Amino acid sequence: xxxxxxxxxxxxxxxxxxxxxxxxxxxxxxxxxxxxxxxxxxxxxxxxxxxxxxxxxxxxxxxxxxxxxxxxxxxxxxxxxxxxxxxxxxxxxxxxxxxxxxxxxxxxxxxxxxxxxxxxxxxxxxxxxxxxxxxxxxxxxxxxxxxxxxxxxxxxxxxxxxxxxxxxxxxxxxxxxxxxxxxxxxxxxxxxxxxxxxxxxxxxxxxxxxxxxxxxxxxxxxxxxxxxxxxxxxxxxxxxxxxxxxxxxxxxxxxxxxxxxxxxxxxxxxxxxxxxxxxxxxxxxxxxxxxxxxxxxxxxxxxxxxxxxxxxxxxxxxxxxxxxxxxxxxxxxxxxxxxxxxxxxxxxxxxxxxxxxxxxxxxxxxxxxxxxxxxxxxxxxxxxxxxxxxxxxxxxxxxxxxxxxxxxxxxxxxxxxxxxxxxxxxxxxxxxxxxxxxxxxxxxxxxxxxxxxxxxx
Length: 457
Known about the structure:
There is one protein chain. 44% of the residues lie in helices and 19% in strands. The protein is an alpha/beta fold. The protein has two domains: 2-232, Acetylglutamate kinase-like (Carbamate kinase), CATH 3.40.1160.10; 313-454, 2-Layer Sandwich (VC0802-like). The strands form two sheets. Strands 3-4-2-1-5-7-8-6 form an eight-stranded mixed β-sheet, with helices on both faces.
């Protein structure tokens, strides 16, 4: 059994959905479960509709709902020729959007958006795209069934589960298996929503915007999958961002550890939490290209495979803020704990940490809604220096454990390009080295380091 996940670009238009359907139909594995994201841009439209609602801008959200209806109805007309299936699809789209309109009207009265309400709204994008794909497959004569997963979580929370409970996803995975396995036994392909339920704190806060990757991984675990395939718009994980370096090459194989590092350091191809269900059950994860399905892609395995380079990939994160705190007595115990707890209280994630005898520096993403409040709180206890518009460039790969002088070459190549380093961090597992630089130097830094390590001399 294979778990296949198709992202927003794979579901972005009628043509893309038709291509996705052909991949499913001609996939060499007979038993498969499909997970889909919303059509490209739809999640952002839904979030905008919510903002219009809480601002009491009725016409604003109605215009967005009309745009969403037209987008899906147009795709449905292209994808579904059988009159019965087409009518089912139109009725489905109109009913779901009518329900959302009523929900948004209620928000105009309430005037605020809770995390669970946010979940209720963004879920619709994947519900509509999953229905479109399932109807298209049925129209082609395939045995496929639309499968919404949000009721699983609803039933779980009646039994006092929370997402912080270590047994939550074990229970969720078990319930997934009980729903999906009977369909597979009847040779039916479930077409699942990436959204898996309105959970306390909100699914975006708990997992992040790329939660459909995580759903596909949980499905793989639940159904004892041989492979989890993430279908996207690139032919695998690359040596760096191809928009910056056109010579970037595909990495044939990564270890689970390396993939996790890349995902957490800014690589957008795979969601960080996708990895752990695969690690726990030793399931191969493969990144594939919907528009080039014959490309082998990138395999993510338990041990991975060394390349002949000094490391595997370069990542860059832009729009970074560096906070440096100083205290009269930095040797005082509990300062790090206090700093981390303060960040956690405002739901702010820390990327890198660097310490010295006189200061502690951390990096976080610019633009967090509670950043100014965090800084104000810290200034009550410490001297705080804030620097915005920085970037993090990182090199990742287990190979650097065996290569002497990688850090030296990394830093020297940046120095030769007149790029100043303001902060350095290296993981204890010796599979990544990160440097904080000016945001304006980010692209040049990536090009410089890629040329130093990957280009033939």
